[in-house]
């Protein structure tokens, strides 16, 4: 798959990213691993995620997508060949915590 430079970072990504909002909840870990394997086989190297995904689902706290991605990388290797993009700054959880320079991960 064609790659494009990500600014001047030296990182190259495809023109599309694999959305990670289903991993660890609507796609359990075995299903997520299968999707990640297919991603790699298709020549894609970029996964988009955010720790607020599924934070609103009862029994979840957010971060399930990142946990599934991390577990897959731990089992299958390849961390240096996958670009993981995330979003920051949204409130996580009912208390409305936000990221700030003074409080890492939004915790005061």
Automatic annotation (TrEMBL):
Q: Which portions of this protein are annotated as coiled-coil regions?
A: none
- Known InterPro entries for this protein? AKR_Detox_Biosynth (IPR050523), NAD(P)_OxRdtase_dom_sf (IPR036812), NADP_OxRdtase_dom (IPR023210)
* Occurrences of domain NADP-dependent oxidoreductase (ranges): 16-101
> Pfam families given for it?
Aldo_ket_red
Name the SUPFAM superfamilies on file.
NAD(P)-linked oxidoreductase
Q: What is this protein called?
A: Aldo/keto reductase
